[in-house]
Each structure stands twice: as C-alpha cells, then as structure tokens.
Specification:
The structure is a homodimer of 386-residue chains. Chain A is of the alpha/beta class and 386 residues long. Among the domains of chain A are: 1-54, Orthogonal Bundle (434 Repressor (Amino-terminal Domain)), CATH 1.10.260; 159-288 and 318-370, 3-Layer(aba) Sandwich (Rossmann fold). Chain A has helices at residues 4-11, 15-23, 29-42, 48-55, 71-86, 100-112, 131-135, 159-172, 188-203, 220-232, 245-257, 290-306, 329-333, 359-364, 367-373; strands spanning 60-65, 90-95, 117-120, 140-143, 153-157, 178-182, 213-215, 239-242, 266-270, 284-287, 314-317, 320-322. In chain A, the strands form 2 sheets. Chain A has a 6-stranded parallel β-sheet with strand order 2-1-3-4-5-11, sandwiched between helices. In chain A, helix 1 (4-11) crosses helix 2 and helix 1 (4-11) packs across helix 3 (29-42). Chains A and B meet through helix 4, helix 5, strand 2, helix 6 and helix 10 of A and helix 4, helix 5, strand 2, helix 6 and helix 10 of B. Chain A binds a DNA duplex (16 and 16 nucleotides) through helix 2 and helix 4. Chains A, B: Residues 328-374 have a biased composition (Low complexity). Chains A, B: Pfam families: LacI (PF00356), Peripla_BP_3 (PF13377). Chains A, B: Residues 2-55 form the HTH lacI-type domain. Chains A, B: InterPro entries: HTH_LacI, LacI/GalR-like_sensor, Lambda_DNA-bd_dom_sf, Peripla_BP_I.
DNA sequence: CTGTTAGCGCCTTCAT
DNA sequence: ATGAAGGCGCTAACAG
C-alpha cells in the first residue's frame, strides 16, 4: 500500500508537501494538484495509525454503552454520531453489557488507542474509573450519571421531574391509588424517578396516604411479578408507574393475565419505545430525550477537546410526557366500542394521531431524528415539563 | 504517560525485555517480575497505536451494520462480540445507517486503522466495495448478502426456506388467500423471501391461483399502506406474510384500524423481535438466527486471519418458525371470550407459555443468548425447517 | 511556499 | 536469555 513517500516521489515533491496537501497546509495549487493526482493514481490512503502515533490523538470517538438492545441507546448513539460526523470524527460503539469489567476493557482500549474522546454511560457509579483517560487528556463525558471517580461533564435527563409530571397526570386523571414499580435501590435512576413519584404524592391538595412502591429489577419478569404482587394486595393500586419500559411490559402482561385492561388500571412508563404506540391501548410514557442527550454529550466533548480546562458542566435535559390511552381514564368510562377491541382507547390528546399510518414509522426509524431533520410534521404539544 | 523505556529504566533492563514480557518472549522469571513490578508502579499501558504501526495490524474488529435500531443487528453484534472477545479482540460497532457513503467511510476507517477484520452487513450489493480492505489483507466477512465487488466469506440465514415454511404453515392452517408484503425489488432479502413464499404456493396438492404480492419499503408506513391496499381488493387476502418486522407492525395497525383482528386474518412476519410476543395475539414469526450468524461470521474471520488463503466459504444457517396466535385459525373460530378482548387468543402451541412471566425476559435481553448459555428451559419444538 | 529531519512508542531482527 | 538498533508512516519544527 502506498505511503506518502511513494506519493511524494510520484508527484516529485517532498513528503512534507504531501502531508500539507492532506491536512490543509499552504501549498501552491499547481503542486497540490500534482499531489492529488498522484495520490489518486496510487490509491493512496493516509495511515491513521501512523498519524495517530505522531499526533498522539486519533479522530475516533468511543461511545461506551451498557446495553445495545436498549432503544434509548440507539437513539443516543445517533445523537452522538450526527454531531461527531459534522466534525469529521468517526464514532465506534462499545457494548459494555452492564459489566464493569467489560467496560473497563473498553476504557482501556479507548486509552491505548488514544481515542479522541469517550462518551460513556457508566455501568456503575462506584466502579467506573475514568481517571486514567483524564490523566492522559482524553475528554470524557458521562451520560445519565457521573462516575464517582472524577468530576466530569455530564448530561442527564430530568428524570425526577419527568416522574413527577407523569405521576401528577395519573392523579389528575382521578386515579386514587397510584403505585410505582421501580428498579433496584442501587440504581440511581430508579431512585431519582421514585423521588419524583413520591414528591407528586406529597404535593396534592389533599395529603394522600403513602403510596405503594415495589422494587424490581428493570426487567420484564420483575415487572410482571411486582405487578402481580401489587394486585394481590388487599387494596390493590388502580394505577401504576413503571420506571422503565421492560418492567412496563411485564406489568401489562400481568394485568392482561388477570383480565384487567388499561386504562381501567392506569399504566404509565418511563422510556418511550417502538412498541409504546403499538400496544392497545397505547402506552403513556415519559420520553427521555435520548437523541438530544447524545448530541449534547458530543458537543461537550468537542468543546472540551478544544479547550480542555473549562469547568466540568452538568446538563439536565427535560423529559416529555406522552399521554396515551393507557392512562386516560375518561376514555375507559365511555361505552365499549363494538367494532374493535380498542377502537376508542386509542384516542389521544390534542393533535396526536392514532398509532396507525404515519407515526409509527417515525418511531421505528428513530423518532428523535425527526427533530434533527425537521421531519416532525405533527403539531407538538408544549412540553409537559416546567 | 509511561512508555516501555521508562519501564525498562525503572526495571533496569532493556526496552526489548519489557516488550518480551508484554508479548510472551523468553525472559528470566526474575527479570520478568521486575518488569511487571515497574510497569505496575508506573501505571504503564502499552500504546496500541504504536504497536499497531509497528505490527501493521490492530486487535480491534469492526462490525459495520446498516441499522443499529434493528434488533436483528443487536443480536448479531452479541454473537460477533462473544467470539471475538474469546480471542482477545475488541469489537467496535459502526452504524452505516443504510447509507453507502457512510458505509464507505467506515470501511475507510477500518482500512486506515488497520483493523483486525471487518464483519459487514453490506448496504448495497452493487455499491459496497471491500476490495481495498482485501488488497491490504484485512479479512472481511459479509453477513446476509455478499457484495458484488469480491467473493468473500459469507454467512446468511436460509430465508427462502424460512419463507417457504411459514407460508406452508399459513396454508396448512386453512387460509386460502395468503398475500405477501415484501420489500423493494432491489433488495435481495425481499426477493429471496418472496421466492420461498411463491414456492409454497406452487407446491400445494391443489394448484392455487397466483397469490397477491405487494411491494413496500420495509417500513411501518409501507406495511400499513400495502395492507390497506390489499384489504381494498375485491377479494382481499385472509392471511398475510410480511417480510420484515416493521412492515408487520404496519400491517397489524392497518388491520386494527378496520376492526380486523388476527387470527381472523392470519398474520406472520419475518424477524422475531421483542414485541412479537408482546402484542395480542402474539405474532407468528420466522426467527433469524442472528446471534449464531454473528458467531459464525466472527469465527470465519478468525480462521481467515490465521490462514488467509483458504477458499471463501458460504454458510447458510436455518431459520426457525415461531408459531403464535396471529396465525392459528383454530383459536379464532372459538367463541369470543368475555373477560378480556384477547384472553384466549394467546393460546399457543405445545409447551410454549403465554407472553407473561418468563419468556419475554429472554426476548428482551436477547433470546438468542439463551441458547449459548443453556438457559433455554422451555421445551423446544423441533425446527420447522428441513 | 517548500524541503529536510527527527521522532511519536513499539516490536523485531540481529548480534551477543 | 538479553541488548542494540532500525523503522513502521506520518507530522511538526526548523531552515531555506
């Protein structure tokens, strides 16, 4: 494979001139043309490894996530990618699989490869250690939570207010015993969301009794079991908030198995996904601005890459409440339709359309991208968040 | 950051000795211990960029996929990863987004970074060009289809027989006008699946009339429109096969909007996903062995890495038919249940359980991994494929 | 604007 | 078993 010396020889210039042509140094247009022609002729591709060694920095950015199967991350990845590509950086995805050890390996790779930067969704608050990267000047931005090991740029969704808003919504719909299925106590996300849930209960005009909280494992099965146990109580809840989409799926299955059907029992969930609009009735969710988080993280990275010494920032992005049939009690008290099982339960607020013709496409291929591309033709409700 | 010279000095040996300790050369155990201690002390991390430059090869493997949001790829990625990690290779994911240009960029990166190998799901049969990689000795394995530009190792699912089997199943269930919603004519996957569909029709005891085929775009919206048009025909189909999961979602929505409900109209789809078991009734699918494909691809890559000159291989892996409520006409002719809209439509074949407690978890976290880990406790039906 | 030169960190002969 | 030395391909500093 040709290198710059070969090109230089063919173009009858020095290697430095070839390098300048490649990297935008000042070269007479005549020589530059000769270089380009020679490079083309020889099929020359600059060797990034050598360049990286010399420059002590590559132009590849690592995005380390904990679960590639989670739609949140796919949207996040697009946000990172779109911003990075605009700055001529490539993004590689590393799937740490929620395993601190695997994550450490990828952090090692990022370090040893002198990557341009790392966007990381830390597998663990305590164990994730990014100091080695920082010591070597590799910018690191954390998403969702920040590692204990260092104070760094962080981008998070405003989960607490999201949980608060959706809980308020359930209470406002007239549900009286709203329960929460949340994740393990060790998960800060689970705790933050729970906090918002509890705050909404404390604030009501009439003080309410302490709401039921079930701790599960962020998985479908856990959601199923938690919901089942809640329904077995002497005073079962009449609505439930699941703090992630998998547990919501489990909760829906549990309800279904007992012949209960939202919004008879109200259901809402954290995390808007592909199937949120696909199930009948469609599921009320708190949408996390995954794409925007990715964008913001990449932007912070680029900023810090340019000016390493600015103060670490903490960005908190608002969530959005997507109110759908699963939590609209009003729809449930209407007469049951005859045509199809859920023909009216799909009715949703305002200008939103039923899950049929158009919207699901947006969801499937990444609704969040729509924002970036201006393809979001549906009138947007104002954010339910303050 | 410390380099081997620093370590060598601290350990009072030569840099070559340090290198040998790192890479398993012969070093006296006493010196080796000194080197290790010094390396530990200095927090030394070998610089992979320099190593890559010297060795002309990295130990990172690229997986270039066309759509990170497609569950097929997430499972595929796990398969690649698990095999690669066993050989101490890291895997980075590159999301080419079905864009040949983006794909070319990532191929470029893989080339310029001297990656250990590339597993690629080619965005285009015609445009994807991997010759540059091959010329430089970077092994490339194609998944699903092989690029026109070269004959290389390829791993595919047996889509034609999968389509054949599921179509047979629909016919055997007694559906008489089975239509197919397939992808664009330019997509070889769409054409191969269609071929299986048509073959099943030709083979029946009684020759059947030529079945309806709708060409759509592999997206939800396209599936919706195609289904709508099929239903508008004078003789609408009583069953439909969608050749990917997104179009299936669209088709389901279209049926729903007309008050039709599977299995009244039979529905089956290519691609088993998270929500296949979540919808009611659960969706009959042709499961593609994504994880296994990933494994096989990585294994081919490793093999070729070691022995570059073996003949290119073509592996074809069997699909599996997952029969669920959406295509079981017998269930549909039973009296409509009173408790909940879908209480009985969930009944599924054999030992398979309803979508509640356990199975969805397996799905959500990657059913295919279960196979690898031996966690698949449910009795397996024999493969419907021959 | 252009060429010469040194060296990024490592591995790998080649000697010993 | 060990050390010395060259060079992978590129860029940045310095001269001209």
């Amino acid at each position: 494979m040709a290198n710059i010396y070969d090109v230089a020889k063919a173009a009858e210039v020095s290697p430095a001139t070839v390098s300048r042509v490649l990297n935008g140094g000042s070269v007479s247009s005549e020589r530059a043309a000769r270089v380009r022609a020679a490079a083309e002729e020889l099929g020359f591709r600059p060797n990034r490894v050598a360049r990286g060694l010399r420059r002590q920095r590559s132009d590849v950015l690592a995005l380390i996530i904990s679960d590639i199967e989670n739609p949140f991350f796919t949207a996040l990845a697009r946000g990172v990618e779109d911003v990075a590509r605009a700055s001529n950086l490539s993004v590689v995805l590393c799937n740490a699989d929620d395993d601190p050890e695997k994550e450490a390996e990828y952090l090692d790779v990022a370090l040893a490869e002198h990557m341009a930067g790392v966007v990381i969704f830390p597998a663990s608050h305590a164990e994730t250690d990014v100091t080695a990267l920082l010591d070597r000047g590799v910018p690191v931005v954390a998403v969702d939570r920040s590692p204990e090991s260092a104070t760094i740029d962080t981008v998070t969704a405003d989960d607490e207010n999201g949980a608060y808003a959706v809980t308020r919504h359930l209470l406002d719909e007239g549900y009286r015993r709203v329960a929460c299925i949340t994740g393990p106590r060790a998960s800060s996300a689970a705790m933050v969301r729970l906090r918002g849930f509890l705050r909404a209960h404390r604030e009501g005009e009439a003080p309410r009794r302490r709401p039921r909280v079930a701790y599960a494992d962020f998985r479908v099965r856990g959601g199923y079991q938690a919901m089942s146990e809640l329904l077995d109580l002497a005073e079962p809840p009449d609505a439930v908030l699941a703090t992630n989409n998998l547990m919501a799926a489990g909760a829906l299955a549990a309800l279904h198995d007992r012949g209960l059907r939202p919004p008879e029992v109200g259901v809402a969930a954290f995390g808007d996904t592909f199937w949120s609009q696909l199930v009948r009735p469609a599921l009320t969710t708190v949408r996390q601005p995954a794409y925007e988080i990715g964008q913001a993280a990449a932007e912070l990275l680029l900023k810090r890459r340019h000016t390493p010494d600015i103060e670490p920032q903490r960005l908190v992005l608002p969530t959005r409440l997507e109110i759908r049939g699963s939590s609209r009690r009003t729809a449930a008290t209407e007469p049951t339709p005859t045509a199809g099982p859920a023909a009216s339960a799909d009715a949703v607020v305002g200008a939103e359309q039923p899950a049929g013709p158009g919207q699901p496409t947006g969801q499937a291929t990444g609704q969040v991208r729509a924002t970036g591309r201006g393809r979001l033709t549906r009138p947007r409700r104002p954010d339910a968040m303050t």
